[in-house]
Amino acid sequence: MRFMMLVIPKAYENAKADFVPSAELVAKMTKYNESLTKAGVLLGLEGLTPPVRAARVKFSGGKAKATDGPFTEAKELVGGYWMIQAKSKQEAVEWATRAPMLDGDIIEVRQVQEIEDFPEDVRKAAGR
Amino acid sequence: MASDAHRAIEAVWRIESARLIAGLARMVGDVGVAEDLAQDALVAALEQWPASGVPDNPGAWLMTTAKRRGIDQLRRKQMLERKHAELGTELEARQETAPDLDAAIDDQIGDDLLSLIFTACHPVLTTEARTALTLRLLGGLTTEEIARAFLVPTATIAQRIVRAKRTLAAARVPFEVPRGADLGARLASVLEVIYLVFNEGYSATAGDEWVRPALCEDALRLGRILAELVPQEPEVHGLVALMEIQASRLRARVGPAGEPILLLDQDRARWDQLLVRRGLAALDRAAAPGGAYGPYTLQAAIAACHARALTPEETDWTRITALYDALAQLAPSPIVELNRAVAYGMAFGPSPGLEIVDALTSEPALKDYHLLPAVRGDLLKKLGRFAEARAEFERAASLTHNARERALLLARAAQA
Amino acid sequence: MRFMIIVKADKNSEAGVLPDQKILSEMGKFNEQLVKAGVMLAGEGLHPSSKGARMRFSGTKRTVIDGPFTESKELIAGFWLWQVKSKDEAIEWLKRAPFDGGTEVEIRQVFEADDFGPALTPELRAQEERVRAQAARQARKT
Predict the structure, then answer these.
(1) In the structure, what pLDDT confidence band is assigned to residue A37 with cuts at 50, 70 and 90?
(2) In angstroms, rounded to a whole number, what is the distance separating the alpha carbons of residues B117 and B188?
(3) Which of C25, C97, C116 sits opposite A125 (nearest CB)?
(4) How confident is the model at residue C126 (pLDDT cuts 50, 70, 90)?
(5) A40 and B310: CB-CB below 8 Å?
(6) Chain B closest CA to A28's CA: distance in Å?
(7) For the segment A72-107, what is each residue's pLDDT rounded down to a tens digit?
(8) C2 and C112 in contact (C-beta within 8 Å)?
């Protein structure tokens, strides 16, 4: 099974546009990434630039409108993720425990949908 | 405000320009004229969209505008009546519809795009001309961006593109997808251009110390587009697989001082697993038809062996030697032989490896290539022939332009 | 450049209710366009948060709670990863997606390897590239 470990960093509540993680944190992340790699479970990872650099597109009435960040009302915005292969949610949670996070950070563990999870007619409609 | 609109228009251009030029080229039979018409439409967009906003169907707007200007231009230039009539009928016959597409229209767009790719990569053009024209017409890069990519003045590229268009027109190159037996040879020319661009970004020309990921991205994008246009061609998937897997290593290839890091020394945790998976999936598509592997597919398969190994120790060297044997038959080159030697050394021991390397010592193409003595030194060291190994490492150090690499080779000489 | 396009959860996605055939079909076509344009890197849907968990970090303490996370307004239902030249291109592509009814989709740029240094604006980066190219030309001459 595949799982996303979505990182919700406290720092992204008010990070500036030029924010980059500290060298210390990057070093810890690198070690963690190595452990995921060595265990053969790492499927992907990305760090996301801070929310102030985000854009949003709103779709209504058949039209799409784009706006730039920041989106001050929004809380708990994602700052990055790992995607891993795991036998169970518990295993994914265990991996999450070992991630180098800071005080107040949250990791949300979510299972990724597989094509096989959907009924035949839905798969056909989606073009698979 | 205006600059926001301009950036949005540039983005639309990047999405739409290739199809636009392709569709126009289908109508007017000349890529140069097609690009001019497309550029006219862009100018019109830059004039009107900041005020009116980007239209709901920007591709259709651009096409309609370009066509209208095309007709105006033809009338003004008073072309031969027959041509004018032909064109007029052609233009009227093509209805622009919204893109919740008819499969037929989709196929036509694909066909136009493919014709544009084959035309831009036509063998009547030099490789340099093909590359510049492809990046311009299909990659949507500006002349400046292309010039920067190849480290030549902008004027050089501009001239190159103008001349390329003239050559195509003079040679009356038909705007079409090659058929039958032709397709294979013409496709090879396209793949060559795409991989050339990729390599400019991946390892660039000798002496250039930095990787340029943006160029790799341009090449990958073109490769992926091509893979969807001719999915029945295994070598296209092979090339895409090779590029995806090589691109997966971009973050691991260059050290902090800008020195290149050899594959076996790279931190594999920095390999982009998303691209690795994409590469392996593309390789599956290349291998599927059940025929023999072509050169790109073979190289991709070799890259895949490395990609699948979590650590260098887990590398399936035996399989790699088999793949290099096949590659040496199909597309022999001194570099392939050198890599084959390394693989043999790893799979079967330093002696078999050395045997292959020794046959290369008088190879003129490798005369000044520092990795030849470096590989030889490595194998000699493993055989306990330390004095010879040291000499080889020193020779390698003298041949490299990279200071950091020189230091590393001298260190290996000292340890031998 | 790489961007993550984040589709937020709603009542339906959290309840495991699938969109109707028409939307699915349109989404399928949209995905196909992205693939044909060489832009699509990945696209995934996530199971509802009821199947998930959250872990809070505080010092050495780890607190785990199981989903669903009904109070959260920023739950993710799915995402794409796209390879495009600019944020504007990501926006233009996203505008072509078959969403409606007030759906809001977020575009986030991914950190590239060389981002972990002083912040580089596109202008500064272009300048840096020029400097590097110049240096490379120099190096080749020597």
Answers:
(1) very high
(2) 12
(3) C25
(4) low
(5) yes
(6) 13
(7) 777 899 999 999 999 999 999 999 999 999 999 999
(8) yes
Q: What is the pLDDT of residue B2?
A: 61
Question: By percentage, how much of chain A surpasses pLDDT 90?
Answer: 76
Contact between C2 and A46 using a beta-carbon 8 Å cutoff = yes
Of C24, C73, C91, the CB nearest to A125: C24
The CATH class given to the A2-125 domain equals alpha beta
From the CA atom positions of chain C, what is the Rg in Å? 20
Which residues, given as ranges, of chain B have pLDDT below 50?
95-102, 205-209
A112 CB within 8 Å of a chain C CB = yes
Q: How far apart are CA A86 and CA B337, in angstroms?
A: 41
Residue among C45, C28, B292, B260 at smallest CA distance from A127: C28
CB pairs under 8 A between A and C: 166
Which of C36, C89, C136 lies nearest to residue B11, judging by beta carbons? Answer: C89
For residues B46 and B401, what is the distance between their CA atoms, to the nearest angstrom? 47
State the complex-level ipTM.
0.94
Nearest to C74 by CA among C27, C106, C107: C106
DSSP string, B253-289: HB-TTS-B--GGGS-GGGS-HHHHHHHHHHHHHHHTT
- The 10s digit of each residue's pLDDT in B266-277 is 999 999 999 999
d(CA A47, CA C71): 25
- Cα–Cα distance between B344 and B355 in angstroms, integer? 10
For residue range B197-221, list pLDDT tens digits in order.
999 888 754 334 466 788 999 999 9
- Among C18, C47, C86, most A C-beta atoms within 10 A, so best to mutate, is C47
Residue B102 contacts A where some CB pair is shorter than 8 Å: no
Q: Which two tokens stand for residue B379?
A: 């194998």
- SS3 assignment for B330-387: HCCCHHHHHHHHHHHHHHHCHHHHHHHHHCCCCCHHHCCCCHHHHHHHHHHHHCCCHH
- Mean pLDDT (chain A, rounded): 92
What residue segments make up the domains of chain A, in order of their start? 2-125
C79 touches chain B (CB under 8 A): no
pTM over 0.95: no
Alpha carbon of A52: minimum distance to chain B alpha carbons (Å): 17
Closest among B93, C106, C132, B404 to A79, alpha carbons compared: C106
Q: Burial, B325: exposed, middle or buried (Cβ in 10 Å; 0-12, 13-18, 19+)?
A: middle
**Domain layout of chain C by residue ranges:** 2-110, 113-142
Q: Which residues of C touch B10 (CB under 8 A)?
A: 86, 88
Distance of CA C105 to the CA centre of its chain: 10
Fold designation for C2-110: Alpha-Beta Plaits (3.30.70)
